[in-house]
Automatic annotation (TrEMBL):
Enoyl reductase (ER) domain boundaries: 20-342
SUPFAM superfamilies noted in UniProt: GroES-like (SSF50129), NAD(P)-binding Rossmann-fold domains (SSF51735)
Subunit structure: Homotetramer.
Protein name: Zinc-type alcohol dehydrogenase-like protein
Family per similarity comment: Belongs to the zinc-containing alcohol dehydrogenase family. Quinone oxidoreductase subfamily.
């Protein structure tokens, strides 16, 4: 329970510190927001943790006067709607990723624009649903918007997609979506547990991202692939990607390279390179911002019709600074499989 009606519990930060520092994420009490305009106020039931959380929290000199709240995966119940809302009503169960330009969802209540919110899959618990929004939006936009892959299975017959880093949250959803679209999916994984996970998501083949890509692709019958979706260590894999991509193929990436990329490696093959950043629409409030609402509803329908499954891998307990520090530490180890979720406030 909050101490006062107009306050709420949250987990935030004022300094950007290494995750082993107890002050890197702290339990706080902050003002409870109120819905205006097209915002809805959501009572948070469960949240998930993503690499973007660790990147935002990463050590830097800045100090926040007001605690900064992270968290861009939420499942919960609409508590209140702004006067301009038309998509939701109080009591609706929802899931969404939110906007990195605003306070995150690691709080008892959270404000979010209704145009980037979807209805929670009816067949999932809040915990299972919280694992899906950010990764689903990222994977969907990458495959079908940025890479312009057809959603018609007939159009993709004989075409293959290589997913580098397929065992994570985005890779797990991208594998499922690509299989539905009729693509042959090759996922990279380096440990027996990640290989098994990637196969359980539907991948046709797995190869090891620690070894050269092209020889492994050739060993399973592919001289090259028309689509490559790179989810981590882009600069490390860049030369291998340029070798493995088909002439006139498409490469999409989501991570931040630590050094400049040599785009000339793609020139001779006339390869298209595109970025996917799922916060682009909400941050810039693009004219097609509502596409994320429609996209999440499609994801919910696919889940409820058993065409997609949650990528929940572990529940760490209630939402608290201690548990979130544990989740961040796990993500920073680069050994996480699927998604880590926390449920409710103690």
């Amino acid at each position: 329970m909050c101490l006062f009606m107009n306050t709420m519990k949250a987990v935030g930060l004022t300094r950007y510190l290494p995750i082993d520092n107890p002050q890197s994420l702290v339990d706080v009490v902050v003002e409870k927001p109120k819905a205006t305009g097209r915002d809805i106020l959501v009572k948070v039931a469960a949240i998930s943790v993503n690499p973007v959380d660790t990147k935002v929290r990463a050590p830097k000199e800045r100090v926040e006067e007001v605690p900064k709240i992270l968290g861009w995966d939420v499942a919960g119940v609409v508590e209140e709607t702004g006067p301009d809302c038309s998509l939701f009503r109080p009591g609706d169960e929802v899931f969404y990723a939110g906007s990195i330009a605003r306070q995150g969802g690691n709080s008892e209540y959270h404000l979010v624009d209704e145009r980037i919110v979807g209805r929670k899959p009816a067949s999932l618990s809040f915990v299972e649903a919280a694992a899906l929004p950010l990764t689903s939006i990222t994977a969907w936009e990458a495959l079908f918007t940025r890479m312009s892959i057809s959603q018609d299975p007939g159009a993709n017959k004989g075409k293959a997609l290589l997913i580098i880093g397929a065992a994570g949250g985005v890779g797990s959803i991208a594998t499922q979506l690509a299989k539905q679209a009729g693509l042959t999916v090759i996922g990279t994984a380096s440990r027996s547990e990640t290989v098994n996970w990637v196969k359980s998501m539907g991948a046709d083949y797995t190869i090891n991202h620690h070894d050269p890509l092209l020889p492994q692709l050739q060993a399973i019958g592919f001289t090259n692939v028309p689509y490559i979706f790179c989810l981590n260590a882009l600069e490390k894999h860049w030369a291998g990607i340029s070798e493995a991509i088909s002439p006139q193929g498409v490469v999409c990436a989501i991570d931040d390279p630590t050094s400049p990329l040599d785009l000339k490696l793609l020139k001779q093959k006339s390869v298209t390179f595109v970025w996917e950043f799922m916060f682009t629409r909400p941050v810039y409030e693009t004219d097609d911002m509502i596409e994320q609402h429609l996209l999440l509803n499609r994801i919910a329908d696919a889940v409820d019709h058993q065409k997609l499954k949650t990528t929940l891998a572990e529940v760490l307990g209630p939402i608290s600074a201690e548990n979130l520090r544990q989740a961040h530490k796990f993500l920073e180890s680069n050994t996480a499989i699927g998604k880590i979720v926390l449920e409710g406030f103690a």
